[in-house]
Amino acid sequence: MTVKSSDQMLEGKGCQIILVGTTHAPNDRVVIAGIDGSKNSWNALGWACAEATRTASSVVAVLVTPERSLDTELEELDPDASNDAPIQDRVDGVEALRSKAQQFALKLGVRLRFTHVCGDTVNELLRITDSHQANLIVVGKPTVGIHGIAGSLGRRLITDRDVPVIVVEH
């Protein structure tokens, strides 16, 4: 998959990949912020924007949709039905999150790029961190109990990466 411009939608494996915002210069410092709309992820975005202001960095806000849940939802749709509401609702939700994140960063004077991808959250955050040669990853502490079994997002990121990881709770 190639990206031709900084503002576009790409199709892939039942997921639209949305890249929106200004690109950064190759020697720019970049902070990756994992967001999902939860209170902790908004706090993480706030922390990332504050750090970006302090260090003259840009922020890449990353929303990762689990691929399995998307595929399952698409398979459950009746192929003969003409109701695209569930898909449109998801697109509208992503667009609302993108818009809110960009407005938030704009108020703080921070350059923000929004990316929506499908897949495993840790793998996608690390892939995007590598592709942007980011200096820091900031995520919110998960609020779902299942993470205690599989390992928290922050712990998995720290285990798999040399880039500093900040996990924000409040």
Which structural traits does this protein have?
about 170 residues; alpha/beta; Rossmann fold; 6 helices
Percent range of helical residues: 40-55%
What count of structural domains? 1
CATH architecture identity? 3-Layer(aba) Sandwich
Under the CATH scheme, which class? Alpha Beta
Mean pLDDT: 76
Strand percent estimate = 15-25%
CATH superfamily: HUPs
Largest sheet: 7 strands, mixed
Characterise the protein shown here.
The protein is α/β, with parallel strands linked by helices. It has a single domain, classed as HUPs (Rossmann fold, 3-Layer(aba) Sandwich), CATH 3.40.50. The protein has 6 helices and 7 strands, in the order βββαβααβαβααβ. It has helices spanning 39-55, 67-76, 85-108, 121-132, 147-150, 153-160; strands spanning 8-12, 15-21, 30-34, 58-65, 112-118, 136-140, 165-168. It has a 7-stranded mixed sheet, sandwiched between helices. Helix 1 (39-55) links the parallel strand 3 and strand 4. The longest helix has 24 residues, at 85-108. The chain is globular and about 40 Å long. Mean pLDDT is 76; it is low at 1-26 and 146-150.
Briefly summarize what is shown.
By secondary structure, the protein is of the alpha/beta class. It has six helices and seven strands.
